[in-house]
Amino acid sequence: MEQNLPLEASPSDRENAPGFQTVGSSLPRVDALAKVTGKARYPGDFHFADQLTMKVLFAHRAHAIVLAIHLEEALAVPGVVMILTAKDVPNNEYGLGVADQPVLCGPGSSKPFADRVRFEGDQVALVIAENERAAVQALKAIRVDYEDLPVVTDVEEAMLEDAVRVHPELESNIFHHNIVRLGDVEAAFSRCAVICEREYHTPVQEHAFLQPESGAAYVDKDGVITVIVAGQWAHEDQEQIAHALQIPLEKVRVIYPAIGGAFGGREDMSVQIILALAAQKLHAAGIDRPVRIVWSREESIIGHHKRHYYLLRAKWGADADGKILAAQCVMIADGGAYVYTSPKVLGNSTLLASGPYDIPNVSIDAYAVYTNNIPAGAFRGFGGPQGAFVAEMQVDALAEALGMDPVEFRMRNLFKEGSIQSMGQAIPKGVSIREVVRACALEAGWREETDGWRRPEVEQGTDPAVRRGLGFACGYKNVGFSFGYQENCAAKVVLFGDTEVEKAQLFHAGAEVGQGAHTVFAQFTAEALGLAIEKIELCLSDTAISGNSGSVSASRMTFMAGNSILGAVKAALERWEAGDRPAVGDFTYLAPKTSALDKKDGHCYPNFAYGYVAEAVQADVNTLTGEVRLRKVICADDVGKAINPTLVEGQIEGAVVQAAGYTLMENFITVNGITRTKELSTYMIPTAVDIPDQVQSIILEIPDPIGPYGARGMGEMPYIPFAPAVVDAVNQATGVHFYRFPLTAEAVLRGLGKI
């Protein structure tokens, strides 16, 4: 059963309805006890009595042809069971959208150019051994003959006609180009009182989730390859494995146990396919033993994708009354060696590069480019932070040029119901950006006076070397991938009892990556049935028992899962009334259709729902040391309906801390495509001493018209405007404008002219 219509009563109807039973309550997480007692099992915690161990031989070269792989010495190591290379992969390709990456790089593959490595984390061989020691020894014994190729790591260099081709079969390293044209930008610039033209840079970021990539695989009694792993889309993992191994989909089972963080870093493949490949080859050789892998932190850092680096050139103009008339932007994203999710990420940043503002004339050219850097892909915000950075920095620049308060300037330009986005369509109903901006600004001390908004005076401390600033930014973010992708999510509910429903089972594949999704699933189910949450049995994250939920990313899971669960409950109750015992309800929610960008002007219906956010940041800048200290962050989010308010606050606080690392300290360094920050001792992430002194969450609940119980997606929203808010605070504190980050102490001192 499929449905793409709203499942719930209208917001006005809900206002007069009885209070919620479980929805809106800060109930304990369903996985809390297992996690705090250590009983929760993560992929690396699965051990089998007869297990084998696998290690990966990474290329550790940015660009080279693999001429030969010499395995003789490695195979002679005691305890080595099997070594796999490219010739052992049935269909040596994979990719989320575009299958442009070999599973293993080297000679012997039928795929053209699969004999070359394109970044340091390309995988060349798999060693399967009795134990870790033997596997490591064998890795060291493998000799590989390489022919090194020229390396391209700069995006502008990569775009040149005579640039080194990362994929020689292609005519260009530019693999995706979005064009947006609305109105007449050049004519609008001629009418502008002020024009601001700037260049910005946003950095690479490592996901740095707590649990490195790990898992186990085996062939069960029915011949099904079973993979226990951490990911974000179990059914996509299943499809990628089946494709690479050339086996039917039903011969692959993917199970997600507890997952120690994701943030988009588990959306693409890491160990999924190679675990399944090892299990397949062992089984074919008559060795029916499970195989296990656990990556080190260094392997994790080079082996999975990163947040995209962006080069951004913007030119915006406004009239004397503070109305933005034109926005022009060129965006170049470093996609690294393979496509991954770059087209979707680029779609979001293309849309958000003009911000939540009603701008009648827009011109955007956005490029994703192949280089020999680590591939870039999904990361919390999914292109939103990069797009929001250029938009919010340009808004601040125009406000300053006009001598206008930045909140007042925003209020004169923010979306309203029915506003036309840069891609030529009216924004979906439920626009609440003005409400979140107002709530955040008032809490931060702005005054709304008859003639406009006024920034508060910032009280300085006693140390003359430390200057304090107050920054502000806002933004919005779509729910789901959209841009023509048909968003869908399946759920099954089974009801048990005699005359009354006594218990319910929920079958759902949506991943729990630390955000509390499974708790929210249980709350949706209990609320819809009028049962206590203890009466809901969760059967989750297993392709063998659940339909496709889609990815737990892009702020989509609460929205999509909620609608799928409510539909499944409705279907189950209909079967219950018909006399079925137990009563089963299967339902797949289909979100409203969207459309892809038109190739000529980018006009489309990009997304069906959005979340809205505003942030104010108070920061201290030590002008002698360059240290930036975040004193207070105020984050106002419209979540539509807070299904579990404590979980919402946790998402806000977690996003703020992660965004603080991105903005201030996480400096991912590579030289000629080789990473120099391969450990958390050199790639610095926030610790307890680095997080803001205070994070104040303002949760607005303005129902989304088609969200389950009015809920919007919000997991990414606090991330979107954070960097520009911090940079604005630093600009206000020092009087110096910064156009790139992270704002490390060295970068701040350099900007201040101290070094």
Describe the secondary-structure layout.
Layout: E1 2-3, H1 11-15, H2 32-37, E2 52-58, E3 64-70, H3 72-75, E4 80-84, E5 116-117, E6 123-129, H4 132-141, E7 143-148, H5 155-158, E8 174-182, H6 185-189, E9 194-202, E10 214-219, E11 225-229, H7 234-245, E12 252-255, H8 272-284, E13 291-294, H9 297-303, E14 310-318, E15 324-336, H10 342-352, E16 362-370, H11 384-402, H12 406-411, H13 433-444, E17 447-449, E18 452-454, E19 466-478, E20 488-497, E21 501-508, H14 517-529, E22 536-540, H15 557-577, E23 583-590, E24 610-622, E25 628-638, H16 645-664, E26 670-671, E27 674-675, E28 694-700, H17 722-734, H18 745-751
Helix pairs in contact: 7-8, 10-11, 11-17, 14-15, 16-17
